[in-house]
TrEMBL record:
Keyword Phosphoprotein set for record: no
Organism: Pseudonocardia ailaonensis
InterPro entries to which the protein is assigned, alphabetical: AAA+_ATPase (IPR003593), ABC_transporter-like_ATP-bd (IPR003439), ABC_transporter-like_CS (IPR017871), ABC_transporter_ATP-bind (IPR050166), P-loop_NTPase (IPR027417)
Origin: domain of life: Bacteria
Protein name: ABC transporter ATP-binding protein
Keywords of this entry: ATP-binding, Nucleotide-binding, Transport
SUPFAM superfamilies according to UniProt: P-loop containing nucleoside triphosphate hydrolases
Amino acid sequence: MTVQMEKSLPVRAERATAVELDGVGKTFGTGAGAVTALRGIDLEVAHGEFVCLLGASGCGKSTLLNLLSGLESATTGTVTVNTARPSFMFQEAALMPWLTAARNVELPLQLAGQGRGARRGRAQELLELVRLDGMGDKRPHELSGGMRQRVALARALAAATSTPGDTPGLLLMDEPFAALDAITRDVMQSELLRIWEATGTTVLFVTHDVREAVRLAQRVVLLSSRPGTVVREWQVGTSEPAQLHDEITGRLRQVITSHAA
């Protein structure tokens, strides 16, 4: 049974917004072959907020995350990220198979120039946070799928979670639990909420699963079919989860149907 958790907003940093998108568009290619993935995106996300981006496949959700991470540049509009070190978590754990779990978590800290002692200590803290204490010496093939995703989450937090005095980080999650079985996915959703509450990290979570969005997010943002633009937003907690689920599902179906027509 899934338990709906009350999601309280962690303490925000001095700046009001972690992410600001103003009239953002993204077009791939030029001329007759150009494909517009996003058009006129206006969106703000507060520090410490958990936002789910919801939409049908191909609506530009992943492209939007790529713009925020700096992997892509917007064609039009302005993208502003007021956080430290945005980091990604994908559907696949994408761990280095020759490294232990602890060394995988240490990797972004090493690339950031942290000394061996500091990064080992931080990796141990993060493995404990994701309930993998004592598993740091295991390699990916020795771990279950859920455990590998926990290591990936710890690694992402190593890059995104601020050190004392820094601006809080930004965690970009692109359907990270989609490949897991239903029970493991349910557990990982609960764990993510626990970790988010503990760290205050800003989270943008991409999904096409309405139930997952309603369970996890403080705010659900629905994108239209390509080219993606913001259709509507919902604040979670303002109505019963089942009622909100049905309302969002109905609106998503309208978006998909209008595109198919």
